[in-house]
Amino acid sequence: MASVPQDWHLEFFVDGKPVTNETTIYRGVHHDREDLDESSAKNVWSAVHTITFKRVPGPPPPEPSTLTPTTQAASEGDTLQIPASLDKDPTTSSIIRLLRVLHEMNATIDDILTDSKDTATITSEPLAQFINTKLTAKINRQLEEPLIVASDCLPSWSEDLARLFSFLFPFETRHLFLQSTAFGYSRAMMRWQNSQNGEDSRRDLRRDDRPFLGRLQRQKVRISRSRILDSALKVMELYGSSPSILEVEYFEEVGTGLGPTLEFYSTVSREFSKKKLKIWRDTDGSPGTEYAFGKRGLFPAPMSDEQAAQEIGKKQLNIFKVLGKFVARSMLDSRIIDISFNPAFFRTVKLVDQDLAKSLFMLKEFVNAKNAVEANKSLSPAHKIEAVQNITVHGAHVDDLGLDFTLPGYPAIELIPGGTDVPLTIENVDIYIERVIDMTLGSGVRRQVDAFRAGFSQVFPFSSLRAFTPSELVMLFGQAEEDWSIETLMDSIKADHGFNMDSRSVRNLLQTMSELDHQQRRDFLQFVTGSPKLPIGGFKSLTPIFTVVCRPSEHPYTPDDYLPSVMTCVNYLKLPDYSDLDVLKKRLSVAIKEGQGAFHLS
């Protein structure tokens, strides 16, 4: 693939005004006429617009932010600033600024009250209380217009609200905004066209005259199942940033299409989660387990400056970079991944390691007691020193803990130079807490997070995700819990070719599915769809729709002699018309166990 030249680039102008390379022609013309009166603005279709370009020495300019400078500053932490598009009415801007502060306080109330939980009890409001239905309707209306989306002409107020005040909108609207603004023209048009086709289908209409607006190329790759992580690293390096849809096949297997591709994403997800990579903080000390485990999900293992400079450290950082590209690629192609991230990966120590948090809270009691002594004006300096040395918590002095300045659980990482030989004392306990928190959540994981962000942004800008909360990002990446009740399944599944929803075997199947435990659900989905997780929205969001058809039997065999089979590319389950519920459960269980790990039918 040809690389972008670095010694020169092109600059474009619309009617004499410079525009970025990412700007569409219509957006350039439209923004040029925004400040004109209404009659002049209407002449956009009849006027002649001159586009010029010139070759300029030097590398291409960096990709511009989709936010205005004021918006960018606000997004990076200054909650008092507000973008120009929302600052025209002082009352309105004051209200939404206040709402942002209240929302942030409400969302982090547990952290705010960490030190005063014994004296204060405040229950946070549901975050849905902040959603504004009228603004949601307005932005949905904008996103339904294909010309606006295709030409990247969304009003600046809608972009700024969606990114900086995302709490005003439900998750579905923000997810639609992401798909419409960050995934490129072809995917935006395909999404719009699919939604129109869905509307036509619900109305029993057929529109063959509608033009096909978005066409995506497909990039097929063939990999080795025995070296799947190495293959994935190479595939992401070569094709991770490609605008084409990625399709995966396996050597010595004839299966092609959606099924093997979905299985690739789920299998590689598990490979990224393995302990042997030593990239994750592992709170499960069991040596026999293959995968890293965290009570709240996976979080990067800390890395010191010395470790980062070594070859193994560089390799681990590269894995995080490829992981970022892999996650972004899964979002771009609407593929389901199976990585259980900790929400703190995208946002306190309590979420990362609960045992460590308890220890730090106890040490914080020493700090609080020391501060109380030092603030006591009735004590002389000599008495203060004596009182500080006599501080105990739960009957123990801090020296009794036998700790030194190394990171708990990672003795090779020193919190200060020579930390192995520096004992924890009442004089330095506050410094110890600061360094542990920094190494756990700050400098110790910053390189890994930055590498993940860099890899992600090679596919589409990581800044596009600022509209989502950390918990929502975890859900986007495959940790959502879906409804498997019989009622939901009946509304989401189609019976065809010999079956209807009242057929005995279909009803037995629905009952069996509703009774599956967590692991059995994962195995069932892996068997039927190629992925152990459902997309956001559950069974209703499967494309194509999950369909159960009758598998015929041939004399002298009966349906009870056959196993169910699947077509993962179209989410088809071919189910024999079994004689009773028990037979269905047994035969389905055998099929699921024997049908994993390969695609031998095209």
Automatic annotation (TrEMBL):
Gene Ontology molecular function: ubiquitin protein ligase activity
Which intervals of the chain are annotated as region Disordered?
Answer: 54-75
InterPro entries attached to this UniProt entry = HECT_dom, Hect_E3_ubiquitin_ligase, HECTD1/TRIP12-like
* Annotated PROSITE patterns: HECT
Give the positions the UniProt entry annotates as the active site: 569 (glycyl thioester intermediate)
The region annotated as signal peptide is none
What biological-process terms (Gene Ontology) are attached?
proteasome-mediated ubiquitin-dependent protein catabolic process; protein polyubiquitination
Domain HECT, by residue range, is 259-602
GO terms for cellular component: nuclear speck
Keywords of this protein's UniProt record, alphabetized?
A: Transferase, Ubl conjugation pathway
Pfam family for this entry, one: HECT
Q: What is this protein called?
A: HECT domain-containing protein
- The species is Penicillium desertorum
